[in-house]
Amino acid sequence: MAPCKRVPMFLILFILSITRVATTNAIASKVDRFVPQDNYLLSCGASAAVQVDDGRTFRSDPESVSFLSTPTDIKIAAKASLASASPLSPLYLDARVFSDISTYSFFISQPGRHWIRLYFLPITDSQYNLTTATFSVSTDSMVLLHDFSFIASPPNPVFREYLVSAQGDNLKIIFTPKKNSIAFINAIEVVSAPPSLIPNTTTRMGPQDQFDISNNALQVVYRLNMGGALVTSFNDTLGRTWQPDAPFLKLEAAAEAAWVPPRTIKYPDDKTLTPLIAPASIYSTAQQMASTNITNARFNITWQMVAEPGFRYLIRLHFSDIVSKTLNSLYFNVYINGMMAVANLDLSSLTMGLAVAYYKDLIAESSSIINSTLLVQVGPNTIDSGDPNAILNGLEIMKISNEASSLDGLFSPKTSSEVSKTTLTGIAFALAATAALAVVICYRRNRKPEWQRTNSFHSWFLPLNSSSSFMSSCSRLSRNRFGSTRTKSGFSSVFASSAYGLGRYFTFVEIQKATKNFEEKGVIGVGGFGKVYLGATEDGTQLAIKRGNPSSDQGMNEFLTEIQMLSKLRHRHLVSLIGCCDENNEMILVYEFMSNGPLRDHLYGDTNIKPISWKQRLEVCIGAAKGLHYLHTGSAQGIIHRDVKTTNILLDENFVAKVADFGLSKDAPSLEQTHVSTAVKGSFGYLDPEYFRRQQLTDKSDVYSFGVVLFEVLCARPAINPALPRDQVNLAEWARTWHRKGELGKIIDPNIAGQIRSDSLEMFAEAAEKCLADYGVDRPTMGDVLWKLEFALQLQEKGDVVDGTSDGIAMKSLEVTNVDSMEKSGSANPDYYLMLGGKYHKPSITASMQLGEVQHPQAYKRVYGMIKALSIDQS
Question: Where, in this chain's numbering, is ATP bound (predicted)?
C-alpha cells in the first residue's frame, strides 16, 4: 500500500476558503427572494438602462422621466475615459441636475415602510460644478438631508439609505437647491420593505418602556457583519450591504472571529425571524472574546461609532451561539454607552438550541450620546458559567427622525399650506416691524443726548434685572419655529440685543483685538455653542470670550438660557459675566478668566498639572456646594443647573471654585409643583437615574450629580470609563460598593491617600453616598451637603484622628463658619443649630461630652438632639 502524502497546509486553507464562499452563495440562492410590491430603480440622467452586480436593472432617464417634475431638463454624464476606467458602480456615472425645486413622484401600491436609497457623486462637467452644490432632500412629510454638500476633496461617492412610512398612494422625493446653488442626484431606489422588518414599538433603554416608532423615519447609519467579510446585495435579498466590523473595534486584540458554515444556521420555526431580518451569512460569523481559555478573564469587546447628537437611535443586535459546544454555557451582558442594555443574556433559553438566529432591538435616547460617540460592548456577566465569553454576530444602527420630522437637524419639511402661512406671517411681521420702527424713531428723538451716545437700543430693550417672563417673550419673538435664532446672515440682532445690561458692552473691534482676531492657539474650550478664546483688555485683564457658532441650534438655545440665568445670578462661587457683544451678527459673551481651569485637570488627565491636596479638594467642593446652594435657594423660585460635573467647576488663580456653564439650566418648580417635566439633558455618568427614568427634574438631580463629583474628587477617575472591567465602568456604583464594604480607602487617589484623616474621609464619603440615593426624596439638600463638607474640612484641620475602637473622646470643639450668613440665607440646618433669641447657637463639645455617648463624629447629630431636647443654651 502506497504511503499517504501530506497535503500542504496552505492548500487546505485555500480549499476551505473556496468552500466557505461557495457555501455562502449556495445558501443565499436557496433563500426565497423577497419580491417587493413597489420597486422603483432609477439611474438618473443615464441614456440607457443600467444593470448592477446583483442582477437588478435600473431604468434609464428616458424611462423614468415620467416620475419627474422639474422646470429645467439638465442631464450630465461622466467622460468616456472615466467611465471605462472607473471601478465605481455604473450608477455614479450619470446625474440629473436641478436649478430649482424638483420632485420625483412614485405611485405606492402597498402602504407601509419603503426603502429610499440615494446615490450621490459630483462628476465633472464643463458647465455645472457639482462639487459646490448645496441642497436639501425631503419627502412630503420628512427631511432627509438639509443643506447637504460635499466636503471631501476629491469627493467620494455618498450613499444614503432610509426607511420611511408611506401611508398614501403617492410618495414624493423633493430636491431643493440652496439659493444661487444647484441640486443633483445620480440614482434613486424606492422599494417596499417587508412588513415584519421593523416593529411599531421597541424597548427604550433607561425607562425600559415601549417607544412607538411607527410614524418615524429611519436612516441606516451602520450595518456591520461581526467577524466576517463584506456582504453585498448579491447575498442579501433585501439589497442590503453589511460592512466588516474591524474598523470599528476599539481594541482588535480583545476580539476573536468565529465562523460556521451558513447552512448550519437555523431560524425559529414560528417564522418570527426569517432571513429577511438578516441572512445566514451574518449569523454564521461572530466576534467572541479573545483568549477565552484564560481563567477569570473579564473584559469587554468594544465597538466605537460616530453618532450625531440630538437623535434617538434604533440599535439592532444579532446573535447566534456558534461558539458553545453545549447548551447553557454562554451568559453575557450587552452595554450601550456604558449603560446596561441586556443583562445575563442566555441565548440557550431564548432559542432552545445552538446556532439559532436571534435578534434584539433597543432604542438609545439622545441624552446617552456623549461627545458624538456610540459604544456597543459585550462582556461576561458575574454568573459562574465556566470560561467567560461573549459574542455578537451582527449590528445595525439606525437614526430615528426627531420631533421636527427630520433626520438632519431641526428643519421641518414645508407643505404648501405652511408656505402660505409663512408668507402671511412675514407680511404681518413686516407691518409690525414698521410700526415698531416708527415708535423707536420717535423715542430716540426725544431721548437725552447721553443715551444717543451709546448708539444702542439695548438698555431699554432689556434691563439687567428683567423678569424671566419678559426674557422669555423676547426669546419667542426672535426665534423661528425651529427654535433657532439665526437669520440668513447669522444671529438675529433682535435676540442679541436682549443681552445688554449684563455688564460692559464690547464692540466687535475690541473683541477682535482682545482675541488677536480669534487666533486659533487662543482657544481654551469648545462646546455646542462654539469656541471659547482667551483674551485680554488693554490693561492686561484676562478674559474668557465665548463666541457663538451661527450654525449650531443647540448652541443658540444654550446661549439663550445662559443669558436668562446670568441676568439673575451674582455670587462669589458662580462664574461672573463681564459683558457682551452683538455687532456684525455675532453673539459673544465675555466672562472672567479662571486661570486654573476646570477641576478635572487637577485630579487626572493632565500629567503636566500637579494634583491638588486633600485639603484643597475639600475647599473646592465646599465652594462648588455654596454656588449650587445659592442656585437652589438664592431666588424665590430657584434654579437647577442640570449639568454639574468637574469640567463645569472652574478654579481661579487662588483655587477658589466657581460653578460655570448655565446653558442647560432650568427654573426650579414653583411652590405648587413637585417637579419640572422636561427632556433629559446633562452629561452621561452624572445623570440622576430618577430624572432619566421619569423625565421629571428637581434640585435633587443636581445633588445626585454633585455626589458623582465628590467621588470623582476622592478617586481621581472619570465618572464613566468603558475601558475598565464591567463592575468599574460607572464610578458612582463602583465607589458606593466599596464604601458599603468599608473599604473605600482601597480606591482613593494614591496622590492623597496618606493625607486624609479617617473621620474626615468618613464624613465626606457619607455626604457623597447620600447624594447618590436612588430616589430624590432620600437625598439631602445642597445645604445639608455643604454642612457635611465643612464638617469634614474642620475634622481634617482641627480634629484628631478618631480611633473607632477607643472608648475615649479625642474630638476638639468644632466651629461652623459664617453662622450668621447661613442664618440669613436659610441654609442653617435646624438639626444642628438651636434657634434661641433669634440667633443660631451651636452646642459646645463640652456639653456633648457631659451627656456622654460621643464616640465618633457621626454620633454628633444624635448627641446634639439630646442637647436640644434638654434646651441647653451653649452659646
Answer: 546
